[in-house]
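Design request, tokens follow.
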């Protein structure tokens, strides 16, 4: 971030600190494009414009960590809640369909409440841990702004309903009449979900780049390394928990 007065690189310095080269306190050279969702939540398409900004122009959104105006934490949390409300029902439906195919609809219905809890916990853990990651890396003044913008990493969840179309392929009965390979279906949907979630990784990386003294390559390496870690958590919460619940219910009903 070059100083608007002399061009000195200000990245890594707390907001409001004078430029070490020329002493200017008003030299942050950043664009002035606000977040559409914060400007007017009732405006047509503001939610989707913000989601597009978080996905396709994540660096522009991350630059808001340095802009000289207040960020609306409540609005960011509402964006996150809406994104999760859009994503959780399709994910529950996918888990229900796979469980019903592997066992029976009865077992799938009884397992569904705990499956929904596991899905919700995993999605919230993904966002909350991202905010927690910055706690010892940025100043107390910048931290609230970073933690506000982190909520917009949930934007890719708007794509999750499209995963339902994949069920027509993953759970399609083989032509030879054999049983559906549910293990393969689980792996395919898990890979599709992780690919979708990873679309939000660039926003995390640019937030790290804008608020910490790190190269862009280093920031992206950390961001995608976190995605790999969350893949392991997904196996536990989105695969092991539903499988365990189905087994418990099967033993109870039989």
């Amino acid at each position: 971030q070059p100083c608007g007065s002399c061009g000195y690189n200000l990245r890594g310095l707390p907001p409001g600190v004078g430029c070490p080269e020329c002493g200017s306190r008003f030299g942050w050279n950043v664009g002035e494009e606000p977040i559409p969702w914060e400007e007017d939540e009732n405006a047509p398409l503001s939610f989707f414009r913000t989601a597009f900004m978080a996905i396709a122009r994540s660096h522009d959104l991350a630059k808001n960590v340095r802009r000289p105006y207040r960020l609306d934490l409540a609005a960011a949390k509402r964006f996150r809640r809406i994104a999760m409300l859009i994503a959780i029902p399709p994910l529950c439906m996918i888990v229900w369909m796979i469980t019903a195919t592997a066992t029976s609809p009865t077992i799938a219905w009884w397992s569904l409440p705990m499956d929904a809890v596991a899905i919700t916990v995993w999605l919230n853990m993904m966002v909350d841990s991202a905010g927690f990651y910055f706690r010892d890396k940025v100043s107390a003044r910048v931290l609230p702004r970073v933690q506000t913008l982190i909520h917009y990493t949930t934007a890719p969840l708007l794509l999750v309903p499209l995963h339902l179309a994949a069920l027509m392929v993953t759970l399609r009965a083989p032509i030879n009449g054999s049983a559906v390979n549910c293990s393969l279906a689980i792996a395919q949907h898990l890979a599709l979900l992780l690919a979708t979630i990873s679309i939000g990784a660039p926003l995390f990386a640019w937030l790290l780049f804008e608020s910490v003294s790190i190269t862009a390559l280093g920031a992206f390496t950390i961001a995608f390394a976190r995605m790999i870690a969350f893949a392991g958590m997904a196996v536990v919460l989105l695969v092991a928990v539903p499988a365990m619940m189905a087994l418990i219910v099967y033993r109870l009903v039989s």
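Comment from the thread starter after seeing the answer: thanks! The radius of gyration is 22 Å.
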